[in-house]
Amino acid sequence: MNKTIGLLAHVDAGKTTFAEQVLFSTKSIKNRGRVDYKNSFLDNHSIEKERGITIFSEQANFEYNGSKYYLLDTPGHIDFSPEMERALKIMDYAILIISAVEGIQAYTETLWHLLRMHKIPTFIFINKIDRVGSDLEKLMFEIRKQFTVDIIYFDESLRTEGLKEQQIEFIAERDERLLEDYLNDTYTDERCVDSLRGLIKQNKLFPAFSGSALQDIGVKEFLDNLDYLTYTDYSEINEFSGRVYKVKYDERGNRISYIKATAGVLNVKDQIKVSEEDIVEKINQIRIYNGNKFITTDKAVAGEIVGVTGLTRFNAGDVIGEVGEKSTYDMVPTLKSKVIFDKTLNEKEVLSYFRILEDEDPSLNIVWDESLKEIQIHVMGTIQLEVLKKVVEERFKIAIEFGPCEILYKETIQEITVGYGHFEPLKHYAEVHIKLEPGDRNQGIKFENLCHADDLTVGHQNLIKTHVFEKDHKGILVGAPITDIKISLLTGRAHNKHTSGGDFREATLRALRQGLEKANSRILEPYYRFRIEVQLEQLGRVISDMEKLSSQCEPPVIEGDKVIIFGRGPVSKLMNYGMEFINISSGRGRINFIFDGYDLCHNEEEVIAKIKYDKKADIEYTSSSVFCSKGQSFIVDGSKAESYMHCLH
């Protein structure tokens, strides 16, 4: 049985130490490494050793009781949460590690939220119970209060000791058929364990354990219970399908696509069809990774995780075969920064290096601004920038700096409009009509095809859709990416002789821009949802601070001498509040921010004035259309283009 198990935790909860102990206990490694000794098996990158934190998701393999396990160690710092979330998509089960000393921290809540959103069955391991200040009973109370009451605690191996009476009762309360057997005293221990396995798989029950990874307390019992209570049912009979969850380049420049096989068998030399394209790519090599080392194999079967060479068009989140839709992610950057490099360097070469990094981490969303001759990147925070600087220096041997982090704004529209685009220089021809409608918040760009095949061939219709999604398109207020818009293709026209490659791209982009210029555009900014816990006497100060920071608070929840405040506010206002909050609460309060999507900008006019975007000067984005008359091309301004459109006459 193949099982993929993910390790998740807030930084310093002991996740990597836990991984070392599991691998050592299963004889996958000969010696236990330590983060503080800079020799842990999975934190093998020099930057990880230097900083003592996990930055890149890495895979280790071990066998236990006849099952093969793929252990994924994920980053524990929020700046690297996109890397963590990409790994979530292929996990069969997750282990959430919580420190018994520090308890539930900000990122722990974020992880729990993501695990529930992605419906990943979760085991909890409470670590560091040997440390001074640990309080298991208090932490279990907090977990039940902040996460779920469906927590069942075990302190010994179920395989050898069996379930206790109160545990059986707890399970039966969540299984109607078992409850009937329990009340009639006709249940069996085997039936109870089967029910427990099913409830865990269905995310209806969450087992919790405790121990010390560093002192090897409770880890072997946990491992035995994990093996006993988990199962997968991958089939090798069906046609191959899989999900790409990561892309990396090895030291020789080979592009490695990491794939979780979900059905069937993948063989070397197999050909993989690129979705919606008439292109196939061939699998040249299949690698089974263990840490930073690998062995090659001739095939991969369902349930395994492999790295393959030969694929160039599949990116993180893409699917192969019948495995579902492409992955979407919730941990997205809210900041941007520009790359600063020596002007003696070739700018296109520097850009090519960042394209490689973007291939490995799509959330970077590299943008080349031709007018400014500037590379811009999207990031989660300043720690990520420090790491990127080191990565570029080590891999590409160049020194770079980054400009200050700025808020990553977006733009949308608030009314329905139709955009028209026409591109007809001599011996070229394409016309596109699209309808733009306000979409649901945080749903991105949606596309609907309302065009009849009598007006435009299916091939040209698909081409227009491709151009809609080929990149982020700029809005007209501050040049920010547009989002939350439904774009419908109404009609279009081609010419049998003159329409050629690129014509529909030009017409589509002009139609989109022309429509945006007619609509009522608005700026969106990222928001945080927050949870603040302070002493009751500090309630007034915190509420006052939130009002000043353009944030809204829900009615406070008072618990004894403490108060919990939930609310929502702009990232631009809240992002630097953490240090001030520590001073206000004398270090005894707790504050947690979770990204809560985009919403209308609280200071739109101020942002427009600050950025000073000139939509007319952005030559890459024009609403003007190009027409041809008597062998001569002429340009019509977007405001007048509609009356010239061929499809309307």
TrEMBL record:
Coiled coil ranges: none
Domain Tr-type G: 1-234
UniProt KW keywords: Antibiotic resistance, GTP-binding, Nucleotide-binding, Protein biosynthesis
Keyword presence, Cell wall biogenesis/degradation: no
Family note: Belongs to the TRAFAC class translation factor GTPase superfamily. Classic translation factor GTPase family. PrfC subfamily.
Role played: Abolishes the inhibitory effect of tetracyclin on protein synthesis by a non-covalent modification of the ribosomes.
Protein name: Tetracycline resistance protein
Organism of derivation: Clostridium zeae
